[in-house]
Amino acid sequence: MTQADHAPYRPFRLGRTQEFLKQIVYGGNDGIVTTFAVVAGFAGAHADGVAQIGAVAVLVFGMANLLADAVSMGLGEFLSGRAQRDLYGAQKARRIAAIRHDPAEARARLAGLLRGRGLSPTDADSAAAIITRTPDMTAEMLMRYENGMGHPDQDNPAINGLFTFLSFVVFGIVPLVPYFLLPAEPPTFVLSIGATICALGALGLLRWNATGLGLGRSVGETMLVGGVCAVVAYVVGMVVGAGA
How many domains does the chain have? Predict the structure, then answer.
């Protein structure tokens, strides 16, 4: 035996960015677009009106909207995580009861799933016969392979909600930065557009760093999705402002 055969098992652990990538990207993109929608709404409602209202009003509405939506997003992530845990627990209990009631049927279903994932019929039947001795493990495997339901024990709804909230605030405040420094004039809005593009680019780079996928794809997809949402926000603001 080699030294590696005696080495203790060490579980593979993700970095924080990888572990909470979904919350960071989701919260960050929504924060950028949501705040830019407020800025675009003012800018789209004609430059003269924006100048009369002033940067203070843009900041008040923008910050109020940013914090309210950030809290809503964070709590929504928390509640959805709790609901997913409750659903998983209820489904697992029903699965375990069914497995104990008819282990042969569960073994046949699991063997079929394992064959579908590449095992030979002999290996699939052998593995299923061993695994079904443990109803808990069998229920988890059936739920994952049949329903796509992963075990939620590694997820902490409170931490997920916190990361969503923080990502929303950190990225969402970027489009407002020019209005902290300059009056609400057309050039300031141009700077806000640039800040929004930079924030979307940074979010794409963060996604690229976490996933290791292509740089162009990670940044391009993030900027494309966020850019479409930002354009829609500006057009809506312009239409509403023109009708006011």
Answer: 1
